[in-house]
Design goal:
heterodimer, A: Barwin-like endoglucanases, six-stranded mixed beta barrel, two-stranded antiparallel ribbon, 4 helices, 8 strands, 24% helix, B: Dimethylsulfoxide Reductase, domain 2, 2 domains, five-stranded parallel sheet, 15 helices, 19 strands, 33% helix
Chain lengths: 125, 435
């Protein structure tokens, strides 16, 4: 299903806090997460132990999903983090953090680990 | 007990009380959650208190001499360094960063260039006023949050501008109308009262709303025929009445508005709307306040302007400022750099993967006080004291007002301030001669 992804700063899912005080586990717990409207949660046949695979045409990320009435249907909100920024884009030399077209599907696969992303970044091309 | 200024965000609250014996801060009174976290960072478990360099893929603690030597080695090998960050440091450190960039022929830019800095020149071209917090407290009667969620990013902003009682109007919240325009019902909506106007726009439809407002502003009776972008015509009419009737209105702009779009420039369109409203207004005006997260995001432009007469990015060749069409993003995208010096920010987390993966391919020197995703990539990590707690200096509040930050306690291991460290790198790059 096609959605619009918006990343935003959230005080309870704050990367600065997690990096300063947390652990890798708490980082993943609080930042590898997305919020969707309950109607979309149902449409995607999600249950609490399933994760969401969010992809654009280049990358994907697997994160936990939570219901949030405040999120417009057809959109996904992610806290600003290394996970959301796997999907953010560059457009006309500017950074695009909002209204990114993504595809989503429910998955049983585990969430994308912080170390996996770092490892991928470190690989010399 | 001591009254200090908080460096937890760009609001720089100067009414924080701390209890300290000069060695530790034992109590912080009046700070928000972000401010408290800033003070807690002093003893954070991921605080970096020793310099580190990467050996066999792992960061290892080393002496200052070894770390500085490694950093200078990277700088000296480079002919095209990129310096980035500088919004979580004092203006003195920003000046030291620019001096270093000039010395090593680098390209330097701050976080503002991808955030509030984008507005500044455009606002100036349209003759739109940037207002101050004090002006909003004292005179404001309309506050519009457009794509901005201060409740979670600058937590005390609404307390100050919405609930404070003004000096020139003997009323406070009761005469201030709050309008929030956002596609998401953010935490900021929770402060809304019955006479406020919450407008949930359809995602990606802000442009339709702005164009409709522009049309209506041109007409004599301003009576919208239909709703737009998920806003019904009744609310649209109320919005128009507020915009055209406010004596001292302010639009607080957030990241939501500055997003690029291939077909139009939302910021330009919004500024044109404000220009039209201000021309039509007989007794009032609408001004702007730009949101920025880091405590001195506004400072870099001031320092660049006072040092070299230009806003934002600076590029040096042969120790001279050169004119460049490049931006931070284009430099990274084209891989037009051969090392980076990152100061007080975490681009590996903040940038899209297509950019952070390019940053990660080149040697990276990180100057910061706690672990971040960028420290997992860095070749050299140079820790510094926490500004506003362990070192002082000047910072510019989000409304461009300069505020002095003070040192409260000594840093662990006598960590240098960002300014001292950048000056040290400058001296080392200087003294070890040209190779």
């Amino acid at each position: 299903m096609e959605f619009l992804l918006n990343s935003m700063r959230k005080i309870d899912n704050d990367q600065v806090k997690e990096h300063a005080f947390g652990t890798e586990q708490s980082l993943e717990e609080n930042l590898a997460v997305c919020f969707i409207n309950p109607k979309d949660f149902e449409k995607l046949n999600l249950v609490t132990n399933l994760h969401l695979k969010i992809s654009n045409n280049k990358k994907h990320v697997i994160v936990k999903v939570e219901k949030d009435d405040n999120v417009h249907d057809g959109t996904i909100v992610m806290p600003v983090s290394i996970w959301s920024n796997r999907l953010s884009e560059v457009q006309n030399n500017e950074l695009l953090y909002k209204n990114i077209v993504v595809n989503v599907e429910a998955t049983r696969d585990p969430i994308t680990k912080f170390k996996e992303i770092i490892q991928e970044l470190r690989v010399k091309k | 007990m001591k009254r200090v200024t908080c460096s937890g965000c760009s609001l720089l609250c100067d009414d924080i009380i701390v209890k300290s014996d000069g060695l530790f801060v034992s109590e912080v009174i009046g700070a928000c959650l972000k401010g408290k976290e800033r003070f807690d960072q002093v003893n954070a478990k991921n605080r970096i208190t020793h310099p580190m360099i990467r050996k066999d893929g792992e960061l290892k603690e080393v002496s200052w001499d070894v770390a500085a030597k490694k950093a200078v080695e990277i700088i000296k090998k480079s002919s095209n360094p990129l310096l980035y960050g500088f919004s979580n440091v004092t203006s003195e450190a920003q000046e030291a960063g620019i001096k270093l960039a000039q010395k090593i022929d680098g390209f330097i830019d701050s976080n503002a260039s991808i955030c509030q800095g984008k507005f500044l020149n455009k606002a100036k071209n349209h003759g739109i006023n940037l207002t101050t917090i004090t002006e909003i407290i004292n005179k404001g009667d309309l506050i519009i949050l457009w794509g901005a969620n201060p409740a979670e990013t600058i937590p005390r902003l609404l307390n100050k501008v919405l609930f404070s009682r003004g000096k020139f109007r003997m009323t406070g919240r009761e005469i201030k109308t709050l309008v929030i325009i956002d596609p998401i019902k953010t935490a900021s909506f929770r402060v809304m009262g019955v006479r406020d106007l919450p407008l949930i726009v359809e995602p990606n439809k802000d442009i339709d709303l702005i164009r409709m407002l522009k049309e209506e502003c041109c007409s004599a009776d301003s009576n919208p025929f239909e709703g737009v972008a998920g806003v019904d015509k009744g609310d649209l009419k109320r919005l128009l009445l507020h915009l055209t009737g406010a004596e001292n209105g302010v639009i607080i702009l957030g990241q939501g508005v500055i997003q690029p779009h291939p077909d139009y420039d939302l910021v330009e369109e919004l500024l044109e709307l404000l220009q039209m409203i201000n021309e039509r207004q007989e007794k009032g005006r609408i001004s702007l306040l730009l949101m920025g997260g880091h405590f001195n995001m506004a400072g870099f432009d001031h320092v660049a302007l006072s040092s070299f007469g230009v806003f934002g990015k600076l590029e040096f060749k042969c120790n001279q400022l050169v004119k460049t069409e490049d931006t931070l993003v284009s430099k990274i995208q084209k891989e037009d750099f051969d090392c980076s010096i990152i100061v007080g920010t975490d681009p590996i987390s903040h940038f899209p993967f297509s950019l952070s993966s390019k940053l990660a391919q080149k040697p990276l020197i990180l100057i910061d006080n706690h672990s971040t995703a960028t420290s997992y990539i860095a070749e050299v990590v140079l820790p510094t004291s926490i500004t506003g707690i362990e070192s002082g200096g000047l910072a510019y509040r989000l409304d461009q007002v300069p505020i002095e930050l003070n040192k409260i306690i000594n840093p662990p291991n006598n960590l240098p301030s960002d300014e001292e460290l950048l000056n040290q790198l400058y001296e080392l790059s200087n003294s070890e001669g040209s190779e």
